[in-house]
Protein: Magnesium transporter MgtE
Organism: Marinomonas alcarazii
Amino acid sequence: MSEQNTLNHLQTVTESLETGATMQIRYLLNGALPAQDVARLLESSPPKERKLLWELIEDKNEGEVLQYLTEDIGVQFMKNMNTERLIAVSEHFESDDLADLLQHLPEKIVKEVLASMTAQDRKRVEDLLSYSEDSAGGLMNTDTITIRPNINVDIVFRYLRRHAKIPDMTDSLLVVSRSDKLLGVLPLTKLLVSNPNATVRDIMETEFTVINAETPASEVAQLFEKMDLVSAPVIDGENRKLLGRITIDDVVDVIRDEAEHSMLSMAGLDDDEDTFSPIMKTTKRRAVWLGINLITAFIASYVIGLFQNTLDQVVALAILMPIVASMGGIAGSQVLTLVIRGIALNQIGATNTRWLLNRELVVGLLNGILWATVIAALTALWFDNIKIAYIIAGATIINLLFAATTGTLLPIFLKKIGIDPALAGSVILTTVTDVIGFLSFLGLATIFLI
């Protein structure tokens, strides 16, 4: 469903709710719209309307809709279900998606849901729950088709025809030993054109991409992008035992989540920030970073206070002061964003950090000279004071050099000590550029004017 269609359906639903025409809404939610579109409609609705819409969805359709909801919203609905309904909706989920949701539910409910499953399905979900959701093991799906190397192609075809449903995104069959050790892969494109009498061992590929279960999800996404993969087997790193496979649809989710994480973190928001979260919940989430920002603002204000006598004597300084801080903040943010992106793509390491820092210092110096000249010329025309023009030019160059240094080294340092650069980098950078901007401008003014 396009964005415009989502808004059109949302308007229709809102108008129907206002007039009490629930039959039309029921029709939309229980057949007229695909489950994916119903999920987007729920995500685009404020909490009160979202609850009413959910109550209008028939029980038989809840599980299918839940698959497409964001994790935060899906968990909200599941927490309000009794165990019987949870068991019923869980039948619609792939094992990896179900494991992700169960991690956020009370342990007692999780045990009851697992107890309702067949031994095979329970084993699959329990295996997935043993891995972090941000790892290949937590990302994988255990629904795979495996074959032995000693059978021929004709037997493979007969085996596939007996399958009620081939798992989605199946581009290769996985060849394993009797102990489930991964031996190779057999692409379907190769299987289709092979001699029916040829054995799997003769035509399987032994050079292929395999992923360790402990590999971080971000690295998995980079590997899929680099190798143009549709799916990849996941193994136990110690003995190459096949555990499952990761498919491109799950990797797309990882890429989207990482993009959302970076965007929201820059603003100090949580990954699961819901556009239509309740007022108090949203207030609490944002209050923390507003408090941190207040502390940094007081630090900058303290630096300004140190030069109160200077400001009292030259009013023009107070007018021009924000320019230096603003220029440093923008320049630093440009570098910070670039370096965080490089870290996310594993492009930055010990071997190229020095080159990157030197490059940014030269860029900062050249831009500093260019814009310091412009600012100085405008200042001289505005206040008819050549000394202030020179001072603001010097402060601008100094702050842009500090911005380049901080923007380059700060995210690398934060990453090294285990702090997310996207979350903390912008706050620290803003403080540095503000403090250095005020300190250099007012310090130079104190030396050369007073």
Remarks:
- The radius of gyration is 29 Å.
